[in-house]
Design brief:
Length: 169
Amino acid sequence: MIRGRRAEALKDVHDQHAAPLWRYAMSLTGDAAEADDVVQETLLRAWKTTRILTEPPEQVGGWLFTVARNIVIDKSRSAPRRRESPGSELPDEPVSDRVDEVLDAMMIHEALAALSQAHRVVIVGAYYRGRTVADLSEELGVAEGTVKSRLHYGMRALRLALKERGVSR
């Protein structure tokens, strides 16, 4: 019985205020579908607010228009409305952070500094300058076997120096 009275009261409110509410919502939104949504939401809130439906329909107009205005404001502040429109340009590629590279380079530099001059020269020549064993042999004036030996023992010492600095493999 109470539900029937509330439904009848809502029907009376709808009959009296739906058209003016829709025009008001349309003036605020500029979109007919959105105005329909605002009116529907406003009437739903009236249905949920029991005391509004106990008032005579002609006296709830102010409340309905305030609720409609607040709904429009809330929708304009919502996340989908604030999103940027897609641009014609793609975003820049992300730039990776080079901190790890710099720290690794510093650690290798320190470990190389801990090696003997003979080992350091062949390792830097072979791995950083891209020299061949023959080129290094000619450049340093030593036999190719000596260059190979220095590379082998130099790399072994470099691994040990890095391990001492906390680099594990």
